């Protein structure tokens, strides 16, 4: 028993250290210079911040979201920051034809694509599930099916460039949490679909990386407006989050956990102590503030 503990505990320590601190690979901003990148949901929040980082790194940018006036401003700012080029296409991902329109725009403009960053989400109430199946269906279209459709359209170009797909997901796509049932369903769907696709790429030797980004609470305006009254956590900064996403994509990591400690430890607890995790999750909410 003593010998077992002597061997088991250091091994567990090593496994945890490896889990939380994977070997750092070298990231340099030059890796993005001249790369052709699509960012969806780029008119605000994390998507907007990713556009600014990529602009500073001198990438070519194609941005998309619904609100044209906001996209225009983001594009102007990207050009000031040094983007190799920047343009936008506005439209809603609820429209099933729109994902292909965006990818076609990239093909017509650049004749290829290096990175597809799928980040947009449709609006969903932060509250008890009210039985609205139509809303779940609509959210699946925006948050999940459009991601699949963009991937299908972009894949020939990504195969040619040996490019990357970056999928923005959430803690709510790894562990169940209250008041987000439709949103959470769409994020679990992303994890299932893209983790399965990654296997197939590997088996088939398709040189396209898939990075699933599992994010905790981030201080974007929309997220703070929706949940700050109900969540006790302090949100992490959107600028740093955006940079970590870009790094994980270009380094072709399978998953990003951001912020690393809080997301990493909750995902680990999910597998070893699910009941404890459930009570921990519930204790993080001011339930009396949910109407
Ligand atoms: P955000 O600020 O609300 O940005 C959402 C983006 O999606 C906007 O550009 C919005 O622009 C666009 N959008 C909304 N509806 C759309 C539609 N129907 N068709 C096309 N585009 C649409 O969100 P965020 O907080 O930055 O979140 C970005 C990503 O991080 C999301 O995938 C989210 O799930 C994930 N995440 C965020 C947090 C957080 O705490 N912030 C936590 C975990 C995961 P328009 O309104 O102009 O269309």
Automatic annotation (TrEMBL):
Its EC number is 1.1.1.146, 1.1.1.201. It catalyses: an 11beta-hydroxysteroid + NADP(+) = an 11-oxosteroid + NADPH + H(+); 7-oxolithocholate + NADPH + H(+) = ursodeoxycholate + NADP(+); tauroursodeoxycholate + NADP(+) = 7-oxotaurolithocholate + NADPH + H(+); corticosterone + NADP(+) = 11-dehydrocorticosterone + NADPH + H(+). Its main location: endoplasmic reticulum. PROSITE patterns: ADH_SHORT. GO terms for molecular function: 11-beta-hydroxysteroid dehydrogenase (NADP+) activity; 7-beta-hydroxysteroid dehydrogenase (NADP+) activity; steroid binding. One of its GO terms (biological process) is steroid catabolic process. It is a single-pass type II membrane protein. It is found in: Endoplasmic reticulum membrane. Residues 1-17 form the signal peptide. GO terms for cellular component: endoplasmic reticulum membrane. Gene3D superfamilies: NAD(P)-binding Rossmann-like Domain. The keyword Protein biosynthesis does not apply. Keywords: Endoplasmic reticulum, Membrane, Oxidoreductase, Signal, Transmembrane, Transmembrane helix. It is an enzyme of class 1 (oxidoreductase). Homodimer. Belongs to the short-chain dehydrogenases/reductases (SDR) family. PANTHER family: 11-BETA-HYDROXYSTEROID DEHYDROGENASE 1 (PTHR44279:SF1), HYDROXYSTEROID (11-BETA) DEHYDROGENASE 1-LIKE B-RELATED (PTHR44279). This is 11-beta-hydroxysteroid dehydrogenase 1. It comes from Podiceps cristatus.
């Amino acid at each position: 028993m003593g010998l077992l503990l002597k061997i088991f505990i250091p091994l567990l320590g090593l496994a945890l250290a490896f889990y939380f601190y994977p070997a750092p690979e070298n990231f340099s901003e030059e890796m993005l210079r001249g790369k052709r990148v699509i960012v969806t949901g780029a008119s605000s929040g994390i998507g907007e911040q990713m556009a600014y980082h990529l602009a500073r790194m001198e990438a070519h940018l194609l941005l998309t979201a619904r609100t044209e006036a906001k996209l225009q401003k983001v594009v102007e700012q990207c050009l000031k920051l040094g983007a190799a080029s920047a343009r936008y296409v506005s439209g809603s991902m609820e429209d099933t034809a729109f994902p292909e329109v965006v990818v076609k725009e990239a093909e017509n403009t650049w004749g290829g694509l290096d990175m597809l960053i799928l980040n947009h989400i449709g609006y969903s109430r932060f509250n008890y599930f009210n039985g609205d199946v139509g809303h779940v269906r609509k959210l699946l279209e925006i948050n999940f099916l459009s991601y699949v459709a963009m991937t299908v359209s972009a894949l020939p170009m990504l195969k040619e460039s040996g490019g990357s797909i970056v999928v923005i997901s959430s803690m709510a796509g790894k562990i169940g949490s209250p008041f987000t049932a439709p949103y959470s369903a769409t994020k679990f769907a992303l994890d299932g679909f893209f983790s399965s696709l990654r296997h197939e790429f590997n088996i088939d030797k398709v040189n396209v990386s898939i990075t699933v980004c599992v994010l905790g609470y981030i201080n974007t305006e929309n997220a703070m407006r929706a949940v700050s009254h109900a969540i006790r956590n302090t949100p992490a900064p959107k600028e740093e989050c955006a940079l970590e996403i870009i790094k994980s994509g270009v380094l072709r990591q399978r998953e990003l956990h951001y912020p690393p400690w809080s997301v990493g430890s909750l995902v680990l607890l999910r597998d070893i102590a699910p009941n404890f995790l459930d009570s921990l999750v519930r204790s993080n909410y001011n339930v009396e503030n949910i109407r």
